[in-house]
Amino acid sequence: MKIGVPKEIKISENRVGMTEAGVKQLIADGHQVYVEDQAGVGSGISNQAYEEAGAKILPSAKEIYATADMVVKVKEPLPDEYELMRENQILYTYLHLAAEPELTKALCDRKVKAIAYETIESASGGLPLLVPMSEVAGRMATQVGAYYLQKDHGGKGVLLGGVTATGRANVTILGGGVVGTNAAKMAVGLGANVTILDVNHSRMAELDHIFDGRITTLYSNITNIEESVAQSDLLIGAVLLPGQKAPHLVNKEMISTMTEGSVVVDVAVDQGGCIATCKPTSHKQPTFEIDGVIHYCVPNMPGVVPRTSTYALTNVTLWYARMLAEMGVEEAISKDKALYKGLNVYDGYVTYEAVARDLNMEYRPYKI
Fold first, then answer.
1. Which end of the chain is less packed: N or C, by CB atoms within 10 Å?
2. Handedness of CA 304, 306, 312, 318 (dihedral sign)
C-alpha cells in the first residue's frame, strides 16, 4: 500500500503522523511511504531521517494526497485539504467529527474511508489512541493554568501551592478520566487544593485510592459544580463522552461567580467544550476573558510539545496503521472490534452513531 504523511497545517501544530521508526517498520512490511517535505521538522525529525528509513519525500500535500492510498495524520483535515481527499482513500487521524459538521460533510461527499483515533475502543471500554494525548493535555492544563494565574499574564497572582503561612490555590477538575487524573497529578505535585467531580462512583473510589486522600472527590451534580466553580482559582474541563459532543456542565452564570483573574482551561473544547463560555482558540491567540475570567481553549494543546507528543502518539497508532496497510479497511475492521469502532465515515455515510446523532445526519453502520 502507498502511505502518505502530510505536514500538519493547524496553527502551531508541530506533531507529525509518523516517526522515522514507523516508516522503517512499514517499509519492512512491504509498503511504500511518502512524507511531505519538512513534515517532521517540528518534532525534530528531518527529511534525511525519513529518507534513511526508506521514505520518499514529496514537495506538497497535494502530491501526498494524490499518491497515497492511506493518509496518516495527527489532526483533522482543514478546509484547504478537503478538495485533496479522494474517493476510497483511507484517512487515519484524530477527527472529533461531532464538533465538525463541515468536515463530516466533506468526508461523506468525497466518500473517504475515515478512521478516527479517538473512537477506537477496546473491549474494556478504553480508548488506547486517545490516552497518550490525554495524558499530555491533562498535564499541560495545570501547567498552562499556573502560567495564566500569574499577574504578569493577566491572572490574580496566585501560586498554586502557596508557601508557608499562605493559602494554596483551589483547582477544580470536571471529569476523573485520563485528562483529569493527569491534571490532578500535576496540581497535587505543585501543592494545590484539588477537587475532582465525576459521576462514576467506582472511578472516584479509585481516585481516592490513587491520591491517598490528597484530593477531594465530589459527585458531579449542579449544586456541587456551582459551589466548586465559585471557589476555583483554576477550573479544568476534562469531560469525555467518546465520539460525542461534550455536555455543558458549567454555564456563564457560574463563571461570573469566579473571582477576577481566575483561569479556565477547557481540554474538552475539541469535542465542543464542557464549559459554555469556551470557544476554540489557537496557540497564537490562546486566551480570552469573560467577566474577568481568563479562558484558555486550545484544541490541540499537545501540538506545542511535539517531541513528546509525536512519539507518545505514534507508539500507539502504528499498530493499527500496519493492520490497515496490510488488510485494507474492510478486512481489518472485520478482524478487530476495537478498530471497527474507529470507523466514522464510509461510502458517503456516517458510520458512528454518536456523530450522526449530534450532527443530525443519517447513520448507516458498516455491516461486517
1. C
2. positive
Tell me, what DSSP letter sits at residue 151? G
**What are the respective helix, strand and coil percentages of the chain, to the nearest 5?**
40, 15, 40
Query: In angstroms, rounded to a whole number, what is the distance separating the alpha carbons of residues 365 and 350?
Result: 7
Just list the catalytic residues.
96, 270
Q: Using CB atoms within 10 A of its CB, is residue 167 exposed (0-12), middle (13-18) or buried (19+)?
A: exposed
| 18-to-23, 82, 145 alpha-carbon distances in Å | 7, 21, 30
The x, y and z cell numbers of residue 153, run together, are 499574564
Burial 97-116 (b: 16+ CB within 10 A, else e): bbbbeebbbbbbebbbbbbb
Which pLDDT value is given to residue 192? 98
Say how many C-beta atoms besides its own lie within 10 A of residue 201's C-beta: 10
CA angle, residues 43, 48, 53, in degrees to nearest 5: 90
Locate cell 490525554: which residue?
134
Which pLDDT score, from 0 to 100, does residue 242 have?
Answer: 84
CB 278 within 8 A of CB 246: no
Helix (H) / strand (E) element for 216: namely strand 216-219
Nearest to 203 by CA among 176, 174, 172: 176
Domains and CATH numbers, the chain: 2-120+306-359 (3.40.50.720), 135-304 (3.40.50.720)
Give the pLDDT score at 243. 84
**The three cell numbers locating residue 194:** 484539588
Contact 229, 235 (CB under 8 A): yes
- Rounded average pLDDT per 10-residue block, the chain, 368 residues: 97 96 98 98 98 98 98 97 98 95 98 98 93 97 98 98 96 97 98 98 96 97 98 97 91 98 96 95 96 97 96 97 98 97 98 96 94
State whether residue 114 is helix, strand or coil.
strand
